[in-house]
């Protein structure tokens, strides 16, 4: 597979964090941030809870990252929100000096039935462009194994194309462990004339129960051979983690060799898994 649309982009590496809920968590994240910042990511992103449930935590974390001199992209989800609330958030981020946003549909908060004024992420991208022009570099989500709520693979590709058409600059994928899924997704995008960078999301494997829970929610497949190998380690967490990080490093290496335009690490607010994979790959940070 050619991957020409992706090979034309300079490689960029980014790290994702979530807003901590305790003072201890804040201190831990600052230490994690300072350690990983030494690797030289192009930017970091900060997640956003369902229906904005961690909205203030996201803003506080973004402010903290910016104060440390790190280019930071807040996640902004639109489901269950209003145009006025989104406009307010955009203005707050402009005031903080944010120039990059990860625009997402998001999950419906439990107990909420109304989707709000925005039903899909492409509508959010259109709104951001209408309100702020080209101020923000907009990242959107991509699903090489397709969104679990999509009616079909074709419908999911159509949804992605609409986000790109609405003005997305780049995309970050849901994590996956099947290189072919990503390569075929890129191939389908190229057929539709989509050439923006589509950066693979990398989830380091360190905990099988946590991984299985995340994967069940987001539709990411854990290949049978991998699941059985991980289960075979039982309670030997050190060996499981070493094997898992080797597997994830090899996945990332194959993606870069195939022409992927960088990697986006789901750090889970931890230093070591991302740093080990980074070191295994011999990556050089953004200068």
Give the secondary structure arrangement, pairings included.
Layout (H helix, E strand, L loop, with lengths): L3 H4 L4 E6 L5 H15 L5 E4 L8 H13 L4 E6 L5 H14 L3 E5 L16 H12 L4 E6 L10 H14 L3 E6 L3 H13 L6 E5 L5 H11 L5 H9 L4 H22 L3 E5 L5 H10 L6
Parallel strand pairs: 1-2, 1-8, 2-3, 3-4, 4-5, 5-6, 6-7, 7-8
Structure description:
The chain is α/β, with parallel strands linked by helices. Helices cover 48% and strands 15% of the residues. The chain is globular and about 50 Å long.
Brief synopsis:
Helix 3 (55-67) links the parallel strand 2 and strand 3 (72-77).
| Strand order within the widest beta sheet | 1-2-3-4-5-6-7-8
| Number of helices, counting only DSSP H or I runs of 4 residues or more | 11
Mean pLDDT equals 92
Q: Fraction of residues in helices?
A: 40-55%
Largest sheet: 8 strands, parallel, barrel
CA radius of gyration is 18 Å
Beta-strand content bin:
5-15%
Shape: globular
Which structural class fits the helix and strand makeup? Answer: alpha/beta
Distance between the termini: 30 Å
Topology order in helix (H) and strand (E) letters: HEHEHEHEHEHEHEHHHEH
Low-pLDDT runs: none
Short descriptors:
287 residues, alpha/beta, 8-stranded parallel beta barrel, 8 strands, 15% strand
């Amino acid at each position: 597979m050619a991957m020409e649309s992706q090979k034309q982009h300079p490689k960029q590496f980014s790290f994702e964090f979530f807003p901590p809920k305790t003072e201890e968590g804040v201190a831990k994240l600052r230490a994690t941030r300072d350690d990983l910042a030494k690797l030289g990511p192009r930017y970091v992103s900060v997640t956003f809870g369902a229906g904005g449930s961690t909205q203030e935590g996201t803003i506080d974390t973004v402010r903290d990252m910016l104060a440390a001199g790190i280019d930071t992209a807040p996640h902004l989800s639109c489901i269950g929100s209003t145009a006025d609330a989104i406009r307010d958030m955009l203005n707050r981020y402009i005031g903080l000096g944010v120039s990059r946003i990860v625009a997402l549909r998001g999950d419906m908060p439990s107990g909420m039935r109304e989707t709000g004024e925005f039903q899909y992420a492409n509508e959010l991208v259109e709104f951001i462009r209408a309100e702020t022009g080209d101020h923000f570099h907009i990242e959107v989500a991509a699903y090489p194994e397709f969104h679990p709520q999509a009616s079909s693979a074709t419908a999911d590709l159509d949804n992605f194309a609409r986000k790109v058409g609405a003005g997305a600059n780049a995309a970050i994928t849901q994590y996956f462990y099947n290189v072919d899924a990503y390569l075929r997704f890129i191939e389908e995008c190229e057929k539709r004339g989509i050439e923006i960078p589509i950066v693979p999301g990398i989830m380091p494997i360190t905990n099988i129960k946590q991984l299985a829970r995340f994967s069940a929610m987001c539709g990411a497949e854990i290949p049978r051979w991998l699941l059985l190998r991980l289960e075979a380690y039982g309670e030997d967490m050190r060996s499981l983690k070493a094997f898992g990080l080797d597997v994830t490093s090899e996945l990332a290496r194959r993606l870069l060799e195939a022409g992927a335009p960088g990697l986006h690490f789901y750090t889970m607010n931890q230093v070591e898994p991302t740093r080990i994979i980074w070191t295994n790959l011999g990556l050089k940070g953004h200068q």
